[in-house]
Design goal:
Blueprint: E1 34-38, E2 41-47, E3 55-61, E4 67-71, H1 86-99, H2 101-108, H3 132-145
Antiparallel strand pairs: 1-2, 2-3, 3-4
Helix pairs in contact: 1-2
Amino acid sequence: MIERSPDGGAVWEQHSRVRVVPPVQPRKLAKVPFVELADGRLQGVVSSGSDIGRVYVSSIASGTHAYNCSTNNNRPCGGLYGSPCKHLRALAAEAVLQYGLDRVARYLRADVPEGADLVDCLDGSHEPAPAAMVFSRFLRHLAYLEVPDTTVPIPELHWFPAAGVRR
């Protein structure tokens, strides 16, 4: 249920912050520090298992289930051998922890029988996708983690006026 203000608008629209919905289950951020359902894709950043300084940007498109995995500077993942690599599997598993299987499957428009693995139910193939936008959002996400706690509005995050919103 959306909380409404006296003028009928949603209350969250009148503030520069939105309540963060906690993950469905606790996540360990070391392997998959960033996961999102955005731009018609399940996408995120996955840490390399072999090099601490390398990350992969992985994505699965909604509807077509086309998938891609590359380093943040667009070098293809060596594990894409005609099927999703371990980075894509880790991304999907963390998305299920963050958003729940029903929501992720609905977003990807995939039929996932009870007890089945999400990635095994996808029928897409490898299709290159840009990594820069996802990696840029990840870096911005990291920057927000360094902002000190405050009750004063932060100009960069102040998208909506605190009062007087009229439609």
